[in-house]
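seq:
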Amino acid sequence: MVIRTIIFYILLSFWTIFLGILCLPYLVLPNQLLRSPVIIWIKGIFVLLKLACGITHEVRGLKNIPNEPVVIVSKHQSAFETFALFYYFKKCFFIHKKQLFYIPVFGQYLMKSNMVSIDRNAGPSAMRKILFEIKKRFDDGRSIIIFPEGTRKRPGDKPNYKTGFVGIYNEVNRKILPVAVNSGLYWPKHTIFMKRGHIIIDIQECVETNLNKDEVFNKVVETIETATNKIIS
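struct:
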């Protein structure tokens, strides 16, 4: 898989540069039009993963996605779920560190995609700004995607969930949609080399809005970890 992985990254680089340049006019068009080229880019990644690395995927539980904005809380094991969740949720956004918005071309695409930037050195004022921006996007019908452990985890690692998603849940008064993944089995952490296999994204039933902070935290963690353990075994 070493050669196959190298081929994948080479092709991905060319695909990203080609489409990024081709779609530059979208940066001056209305924001909502930008999703189309991003979806094409992600479809290309799916194809490259299948052809170069023998990695396929499926999404279970699509019926659990409600017809309303939600707080999507996902297990994070690889880069795969970052763009796969954006692909399968039609109106969604992430919170990114502000430095990413300064990258030429890439940063402009992030801004046009209605992503939220965070200054991690700004302290409490950063959280107030983030909550304000999140509310605006929820009012526009968008769902937020959060990886509550803050970093990728290897399958089987001890979970380490942060409570930030609970604060957002309370602030926006929206349901939480837990998501389990097994992508780390085939796109492992701490190595660039992939393994042939089948990635599963498993969307669980929503957690309702009538729970206190301890109840919602424990329920979300238990739901995600139980579902994840089933698909990594």
